[in-house]
Design goal:
mainly alpha, four-stranded mixed sheet, Zincin-like, 11 helices, about 325 residues
Length: about 325
């Protein structure tokens, strides 16, 4: 595949991805307008993020094109115009014995007449003189001439220049895409670095009464895994994090700064995020934004997912 065709394929792929992402996000936005429940709106945007990642991976790996090609193969239908005769039809089509005998005699007589006619023709040809065709001067056919246009050296140089330009275009396209994705991933890595720094300034909560309340709330929300509680002076309010190890971070002096009702509301809100596996969906949304960083609707869908998750947790 030459460079020009490759660049065309990549541009078509980008255009196809842009259209598909717009359709998916638009469908999610339309459906969410007619959904009254906050939990269902969150589900709509979760499905949207998952669809964005699935479509992107299928287009980049060529899975979508192979599936479409396999579905587009048309198998020629069997010719059913000739039906097998049934026993009733065969019985109707069978002639009577007298008609069959008469037809056989006519066929034998016809074959004998044809044989006699062929013998008489051969006898007449053997006795007639052979007439030679007049001699004609046969001129040899002229040698074929090469009428294909010859490529000028300048045309080859021009084609080579176009190939170099297309190769550079492909290279720059890949560099720009990877640079944008790298910047988004770098920002995520910076957040993880700050989180690692936060881990040095946190300590586990030792309040048994608070731990028992969190465990009871987690049981009401259907959370079977153990939820760890930590506190840090770096936090202004409760946060939840951890994909594989759920953790709730509390600000220092949480039980002293807030009333019991406020504590219950804050803890229930963070536990609702864990019950809905929101950290996992945030992680997937971040990867979708990193891969499709050039599409503004993907970023908008990511913000809508966060907003819907917050409303559902309330």
């Amino acid at each position: 595949m030459n460079a020009g065709l490759t660049s065309t394929v990549w541009l078509q792929l980008l255009g196809l991805l842009a259209v598909e992402m717009a359709l998916v996000v638009g469908a999610a936005a339309l459906i969410s307008r007619f959904v009254g429940s906050a939990a269902w709106r969150r589900t709509v945007w979760q499905v949207c993020v998952l669809s964005l990642l699935t479509l992107t991976l299928s287009e980049l790996t060529g899975t979508a094109r192979s599936v479409v090609s396999s579905l587009a193969v048309k198998v020629s239908p069997e010719d059913r115009s000739v039906a097998k005769p049934t026993a009733a039809n065969r019985s109707k089509e069978q002639p009577a014995s007298g008609q069959l005998t008469e037809a056989f005699h006519r066929k034998v007589a016809t074959q004998l007449a044809q044989e006699i006619q062929r013998k008489s023709v051969r006898t007449a040809e053997a006795t007639s003189p052979v007439v030679q065709p007049p001699a004609t001067d046969i001129q040899p056919a002229p040698a074929p001439t090469d009428t294909s246009p010859k490529q000028h050296p300048a045309n080859g140089a021009e084609a080579g220049g176009d190939s170099v330009v297309d190769s550079l275009a492909i290279l720059w396209l890949g560099v720009i895409w990877l640079t944008g994705a790298g910047m988004v991933i770098a920002r995520s890595c910076l957040a993880h670095a700050l989180f690692a720094l936060f881990r040095r300034h946190r300590q586990a909560v030792s309040d048994a009464e608070l731990l028992s309340r969190v465990e009871a709330l987690a049981g009401l929300l259907g959370i079977e895994r153990r939820v760890h509680l930590v506190e840090s002076s770096w936090l202004a309010g409760p946060i939840v994090f951890g994909v594989f190890r759920p953790v709730i971070g509390l600000p220092a002096g949480f039980t002293r700064r807030f009333s019991r009702v406020q504590q219950e509301a804050m803890l229930a809100h963070e536990l609702a995020h864990l019950a809905a596996h929101d950290p996992v969906w945030y992680f997937l949304a971040n990867w979708a934004s990193a891969i499709l960083w050039w599409h503004p609707l993907v970023w908008w869908a990511r913000r809508r997912l966060h907003a819907a998750s917050e409303m559902a947790a309330d």
